[in-house]
């Protein structure tokens, strides 16, 4: 399975089951009223805009849970580049079952493929630089694992999956502690002492001065939040590789190349998961 969902498959099954329960497929009054259970047919899933496919196995799982006798045939793998009008999968079986699973399967495919497609655009935009495109925790509740998977399919990397994945000291953490007279060096020292030793420590800063303070405190990663390009370049020059640098905030396709060319190591983009446009698709039954 591309970019691998194998280790998380039980969670995929739960997510799909929840989505089908939400749609009340067992009470599809339209299909139950109109479509006899013995009618069988074939449907094709086609894309209506160029992009990158993600979630093909998730769509297959939807139809498996609706009706295990339905046969889903993927014609592409996750990560494939597709063009408008291309058929990416076929579904055979009871027409009633196909109709009950149609919307849920398309919802997953369109959403995840949209994230993969947008991620690939950012990855292409910084090609040739050392900058790595990463996501954030700005995800839809309950779908984070799948959305971060889609980012990987698009060529990006994952930042923290959850709050246990790393120490990220943000502005509000610092504000709460500075109000008690605790300086950044002491904040980092506390984190080193109390957090698991295998975790990196990252600090969010908004100025060159704060970046140097974080560096002197011995952090592993410095997040340059909404910083001007000229200030980013200054930080890169002053840090000289003694800590990893992450640019974040206000990143768009129009400026991501310029940000990458400052020399930062990572560029984190919340919009990959919270604002990507779905890759439009449709399921069409054959006459």
Q: What features would you describe in this structure?
A:
This protein has 287 residues and is an alpha/beta fold. It folds into 2 domains: 6-116 and 277-285, Quinolinate phosphoribosyl transferase, N-terminal domain (Aldehyde Oxidoreductase, domain 3), CATH 3.90.1170.20; 124-274, TIM Barrel (Alpha-Beta Barrel). Helix content is 42%, strand content 18%. The chain has helices at residues 9-22, 29-34, 56-66, 95-125, 144-153, 171-178, 184-194, 208-216, 229-239, 256-260, 271-274, and strands at 40-47, 51-52, 71-74, 81-82, 87-94, 132-134, 167-169, 201-205, 221-225, 244-248, 266-268, 281-285. The strands form 3 sheets. The protein has a 6-stranded parallel beta sheet with strand order 6-11-10-9-8-7. Helix 10 links the parallel strand 10 (244-248) and strand 11. Helix 4 packs across helix 5 (144-153). The longest helix has 31 residues, at 95-125.
Instruction: Tell me the number of helical segments per DSSP (H or I, 4 or more residues long).
Output: 11
Give the mean pLDDT. Answer: 95
- CATH architectural arrangement of the largest domain: Alpha-Beta Barrel
Poorly predicted segments = none
CATH homologous superfamily of the largest domain, by name? Aldolase class I
User: Which strand order spans the largest sheet, edge to edge or round the barrel?
Assistant: 6-11-10-9-8-7
Query: What coarse outline follows from CA principal-axis ratios?
Result: elongated
- What's the CATH topology name of the largest domain? TIM Barrel
Along the chain, the helix and strand elements come as HHEEHEEEHEHEHHEHEHEHEHE
Helix content: 40-55%
What is the oligomer described by this structure? single chain
Number of discrete domains: 2
Radius of gyration, Cα only, in angstroms?
23 Å
**CATH C-level class of the largest domain:** Alpha Beta
